[in-house]
Design goal:
The complex is a heterodimer of chains A (91) and B (417). Chain A is mainly beta and 91 residues long. Helices cover 9% and strands 37% of the residues of chain A. Chain B starts with 6 loop residues before the first helix and ends in a 14-residue tail after the last helix. Classes of the chains: A mainly beta (91), B alpha/beta (417).
């Protein structure tokens, strides 16, 4: 159990949020030119990092806005929170 | 040669105060080179080593384990065994395992306490009823025993269930697989370890893999906390940590590792003689031979390797348990824990070769790997020994995520993933 500092609402319990998984997976710019391998990579393959991971979260039981967090998945400690479209912080 | 466990050996050792039992497996130092190294000393890894030695005559094998054998998800699951999966590929895979379970205590000369007490899956709404009936038919077409029970039959089979129509999620019926049941999870790891050790497999504990060395597209061996070990073949069976091992050779897997929680109550007299699972409210319960209620909760929604889950997941499960079994309302819970499960997008496992020669992965078992332990080991051993999948695990290759031929067991496998 941990707290997440929503950039719009402030600190709230994690149970108010939904995890959207790995952040910064860009949708292919030319979908028609993608090979099956590249599609598999985009759709299914994940870094699933043990350690510092960049993630998308949604405040689903609050403001319902999406944002990014940087979290250590080995101990659930959150390093920073930043809005969608902002540059990811250096860790 | 190990002493055989029997009623006579039990008597003999009882008279000497149980002080002269032989060690069940050695504690060897790693050799310089092995024909095959299995990374991960859980049930699946130990079973893989056992079948490689027994059926494929490979004797120069090691199992490398970061902690102690059976200390990960093998010792953290809720010990449920069943094979009532919807799709043909899954039915083949899980029933292969169930058939091995049925004779495993005898084969290993180790009492794994396999108990075919039946597993009942409850339906709480009209869609559940349709889905579960469909699955019952699919199971029977695949030769797997399954019956549909109406509400009265559910009550008769497990009298403590609250079948009142006035509860939030009323019981509208259920399915029953009588051949399903439970086994003692630690004993499975120990039995396979003892069996593998007898066939010459080195079980090396407290030895963490730090890197995988390769030459071009061929693996050479592994870097460990006990030094470099050469290997012709490497089979990775690291469950929640599969992605961590894969990243050592720049492979990304279609996995997300999440905490899955379970809890046990104080021990009480026998009250529930079967396993009852409920998909819609995500609660399942059985009773161990010690008398503890063994309760399985759900996964958290986020990636974590912390082996801790959140309180609200446990709370949700216990709310459902209390509504279905009002008799448990004053039970005290003794322990709660989490395990890290590696979940595939289609909730089916991966038993597969990789594009790197000599490197194999067995992962993605997600929330339901324990039931498959013997089958998984058998099929993974086949895949490693022959460098080709067995026909039963051909559908579970990594390549299915490229071809799109997924084995979608989400929700269809009788429990929510």
């Amino acid at each position: 159990m941990f707290l997440i500092n929503c950039p719009y609402c402030g600190e709230r319990d994690q149970s108010e949020f939904s995890s959207g998984g790995e952040a910064h997976i860009e949708r292919p710019k030319q979908p028609t030119e993608l090979s099956d391998d590249e599609w598999a990579d985009f759709l299914f393959m994940r870094k699933n990092i043990k350690g510092i991971q960049f993630e998308r979260w949604n405040h689903s039981h609050g403001c319902r806005k999406w944002f990014n967090i940087v979290r250590d998945t080995s101990n659930d400690k959150i390093h920073s929170v930043y809005k969608m479209g902002e540059k990811p912080p250096k860790v | 040669m190990k002493n055989k466990y029997s009623i006579f050996s039990l008597f003999k050792n009882a008279f000497s105060g149980h002080e002269n039992w032989q060690r069940a497996w050695r504690d060897p130092e790693p050799k310089k080179e092995y024909d095959a190294i299995i990374v991960g000393g859980g049930g699946h890894g130990l079973a893989t080593a056992y079948y490689l030695a027994k059926k494929h005559n490979m004797r120069n094998i090691a199992v490398i384990e970061k902690g102690w054998i059976g200390g990960g998800n093998t010792g953290r699951n809720t010990t449920i065994i069943r094979s009532n999966y919807l799709w043909d590929a899954s039915a083949g895979l899980y029933d292969h395992a169930l058939k091995i379970w049925e004779g495993l205590s005898q084969e290993l000369n180790y009492n794994i306490m396999f108990s075919q007490r039946g597993v009942m899956n409850l339906a709480h709404n009209l869609q559940d009823v349709r889905d579960l009936k469909r699955r019952t038919h699919a199971n029977r077409l695949n030769g797997i025993d399954a019956v549909w029970l109406n509400t009265d039959e559910v009550k008769k089979f497990c009298p403590i269930i609250n079948t009142s129509p006035n509860i939030r999620y009323p019981v509208l019926g259920g399915t029953l697989q009588k051949r399903a049941g439970t086994a003692r999870h630690d004993a499975v790891a120990w039995g396979y370890a003892r069996g593998a050790d007898e066939l010459g497999v080195d079980i090396i504990q407290n030895c963490e893999v730090k890197g995988i060395r390769r030459n071009g597209n061929k693996i050479e061996g592994i870097e460990t906390t006990k030094g470099f070990i050469k290997a012709k073949k490497i089979g990775v069976v690291a469950a929640g940590h599969s992605s961590v091992i894969a990243s050592m050779v720049d492979i990304r897997l279609p996995l997300e590792s999440k905490p899955l929680q379970a809890l046990v109550s104080e021990p009480v007299k026998p009250i529930i003689d079967t396993v009852v699972m409920s998909n819609a409210v995500h609660a399942y319960v059985s009773q161990s031979d010690k008398g503890e209620l063994v309760i399985g909760a759900g996964t958290d929604s986020y990636v974590s390797y912390s082996q801790k889950g959140t309180h609200d997941v446990v709370e949700g499960t216990l709310k459902a348990i209390l509504e279905l079994y009002p008799i448990f309302s004053r039970m005290k819970m003794l322990r709660q824990w989490g395990g890290i499960v590696d979940i595939c997008p289609d909730a089916s496992p991966i038993i597969s070769k990789t594009h790197i020669e000599g490197l194999y992965f067995n992962c993605g078992w997600g929330t339901g790997g324990f039931k498959a332990t013997p089958g998984s080991g058998d099929l993974f051993a086949h895949t490693i020994a022959n460098d080709e999948p067995h026909k039963l695990n051909a559908a579970f290759s990594l390549n299915r995520f490229v071809s799109g031929d997924l084995v979608d067991e989400h929700g269809a496998a009788a429990v929510a993933h």
